[in-house]
Amino acid sequence: MARLLIVAVGAKPSAWAQAACAEYLKRMPRRCATQLLMVKAEPRASGKPLARLLAAEGLRIRERLVRGTRLVALDERGREFGTLQFAAQLERWLGDPVPTAFVIGGADGLDPALKKEASLLLRVSAFTLPHALAQVVLCEQLYRAASLLEGHPYHRE
Asked: 20 to 30 A from 132, CA-CA: which of 73, 122, 124, 148?
């Protein structure tokens, strides 16, 4: 398993989003190898209450993770980082043997219990983003931070 994992709830993203994510992830330095996994969303037409839908998705997410994985949940009320701050945080995570999973919820967000388990709630934008675009933004920012750590000139201040 990769040291960094992105777990996203939802259907397979459109071709443009898949291509963008794949491009950034293939450029990642070896020590920052990142894998993107999709988790099936719970059908919204089932008549189940939202809390049960989110709990079912949370269970699917947990099933994809190795025990002890550090969770970073993407959330609009999460902490924002500048690029240099995010690179420093990534360096700390990479210095720890525990794998890190970035979790992106579906259309209704993430299971509240899963967010409570997260070591960090991360906000990638003040804008509301479609889930496919949030995946692309996260992949790009991970690549940008990893590039900074490797001394690559991709990022410019």
From this structure: 148
Two tokens, residue 90: 């990534």
In order of 17, 92, 136, 152, the CA distances from 147 in angstroms are 21, 15, 16, 5
pLDDT at 1 over 70: no
Calculate the alpha carbon distances from 101 to 34, 75, 105 in Å. 9, 14, 13
pTM assigned to the model: 0.93
Q: What is the pLDDT of residues 94-125, one digit of tens each?
A: 999 999 999 999 889 999 999 999 999 999 99
CB of 78 within 8 A of CB of 140? Answer: no
Instruction: Give 42's contacts (C-beta < 8 A, 6+ positions apart).
Output: 48, 53, 54, 56, 57, 106
Contacts of 16 (CB under 8 A, 6+ apart): none
Interval 53-78: pLDDT, tens: 999 999 999 999 988 999 999 999 99
> CB of 1 within 8 A of CB of 66?
yes
Degrees to nearest 5, angle at CA 51 with 79 and 62: 65
